[in-house]
Amino acid sequence: TQQVTFYEAVGGEETFRRLVHRFYQGVADDPLLRPLYPEEDLGPAEERLRLFLIQYWGGPNTYNQLRGHPRLRMRHVPFVIGEAERDAWLRHMREAVDELALPEQLDKMLWDYFTMAAHSMVNAPS
Ligand code: HEM
């Protein structure tokens, strides 16, 4: 029997490309979040998040090949992330998820993961 991954169920690479692209359009205009990103070009950051999410949800493991083990909390230590940054991140991600118009159950799985992950990335609680 063949297991359909979440990655496949939501439409594969194209869906993650749209999601993360829309998310970074929000970040690009955000006065709180934009200064956190070290590079002037958000393209490379967009690619890293896209590849990470594709891998996390059962798609190709290109992220690990390029970047090694995710260790996301550790990789975020250089950036001051408080509740305000977390909420801004989640707001842009919510808009990006909305645009995918996924079936309710898939939307909920994705959103539950993002809220959990974003809460775990806070390293400067107020
Ligand atoms: C990288 C901010 C939450 C996944 C980054 C970077 C910043 C950042 C500034 C560096 C950009 C770059 O790659 O050059 C934040 C803030 C968050 C947050 C403010 C608010 C809570 C998350 C969450 C996830 C995530 C929830 C996963 C679901 C990633 C990944 C990278 C990254 C995969 C690239 C890691 C690497 O390979 O170097 N983030 N992030 N972030 N973030 Fe976040």
UniProtKB/TrEMBL annotation:
Keyword terms of this UniProt record: Heme, Iron, Metal-binding, Transport
A Pfam family: Bac_globin
Example of a GO MF term: heme binding
Keyword Metal-binding: yes
Keyword Nucleotide-binding: no
Residues where heme binds: H119
InterPro entries: GlbO/GLB3-like, Globin-like_sf, Globin/Proto, Hemoglobin_trunc
Family from the record: Belongs to the truncated hemoglobin family. Group II subfamily.
Name of the featured protein: Group 2 truncated hemoglobin GlbO-like protein
The gene coding this protein: glbO
